[in-house]
Structure formats: C-alpha cells, structure tokens
Amino acid sequence: MPRIAGIDIPNEKRIDIALTYIFGIGDKVAKDILKIAKVEPNIRTKNLTSDEFKAIQAAVETLPTEGELRKINRDNIETLKRIQTYRGSRHSMGLPVRGQRTRTNARTRKGKRKTIGAISKEAATQTETSAVKK
C-alpha cells in the first residue's frame, strides 16, 4: 500500500477515490490534485508510476491535511470559545452550533436523554418516608 501524508491508501481503488481516504481531501480537491500532478483519475493506485506518485505527493504536501488540519480546526474552535462568541458558547455547552432545533432532536450533540421533572407517586412516597425516618 502506498503512503501519502502518513495514510495508507488502498491499492485496488481508482486514485481519485483513494485520495479521499486522507482527512481534508474530498472529491473536488482530489480531482484538483490529479489535475496539478497531470495524472489520469481513472488509473488504479497499484498502476501508478513512481513519477506520477511523486507528483501526487508533492501536490498533497502543499495542502493542510490530517494532523495539521485537525489542529487548525481545534484552534479555531478554541478561539471562538475564548472570545466568547455565541458559536463558542454552544461548543462549550455541547449543543448544536448551526441553528438546529434542540427541543426534540440534537441527540448526537446532547447525548443520552436525562429525565427531568415530575416523579411517580410511588417514588414520592418513598422519598417522603425516608425523609421522615431521618
């Protein structure tokens, strides 16, 4: 398996699809990289020549990918929190950031449901009796 930007890309896939295994490279950027490197997008990764592979590597190195891009994203979120923007406060509270409703959905950000509010009569009587005993 060839390695680009520290990631093993699959041999059997077309090179334009294989490049999307790298964090920060999607379909459009992969096609742009192949255009810069002058490589046909339909070639399988295992059929690349060493010159084509080096050209692709050189093009990928000009972009922020993997750890570098993750650090940039993390720093941007920390900046939002530090300057106390609305988006930063939503990140801090673990709520949706981009205007989604939170009354019913948003379980991915909010986590497992926590029941708050009224308790059953049985539980109320148990707490009353335990409070009286003390």
UniProtKB/TrEMBL annotation:
Ranges annotated as spanning the membrane: none
Comp. bias (Polar residues): 123-134
GO molecular function annotation: rRNA binding; structural constituent of ribosome; tRNA binding
Domain of life: Bacteria
Pfam short name (any one): Ribosomal_S13
Cleaved signal peptide residues: none
Keywords: Ribonucleoprotein, Ribosomal protein, RNA-binding, rRNA-binding, tRNA-binding
Region annotation Disordered: where it falls in the sequence: 88-134
GO terms (BP aspect): translation
GO cellular component: cytosol; small ribosomal subunit
InterPro entries named in the record: Rbsml_uS13_C (IPR027437), Ribosomal_uS13 (IPR001892), Ribosomal_uS13-like_H2TH (IPR010979), Ribosomal_uS13_bac-type (IPR019980), Ribosomal_uS13_CS (IPR018269)
Biased composition regions of type Basic residues, renumbered to the chain: 100-115
SUBUNIT field: Part of the 30S ribosomal subunit. Forms a loose heterodimer with protein S19. Forms two bridges to the 50S subunit in the 70S ribosome.
NCBIfam families, sorted: uS13_bact (TIGR03631)
Family named by the database record: Belongs to the universal ribosomal protein uS13 family.
Function: Located at the top of the head of the 30S subunit, it contacts several helices of the 16S rRNA. In the 70S ribosome it contacts the 23S rRNA (bridge B1a) and protein L5 of the 50S subunit (bridge B1b), connecting the 2 subunits; these bridges are implicated in subunit movement. Contacts the tRNAs in the A and P-sites.
Name this polypeptide is given: Small ribosomal subunit protein uS13
Lineage, broadest ranks: Bacteria, Candidatus Collieribacteriota
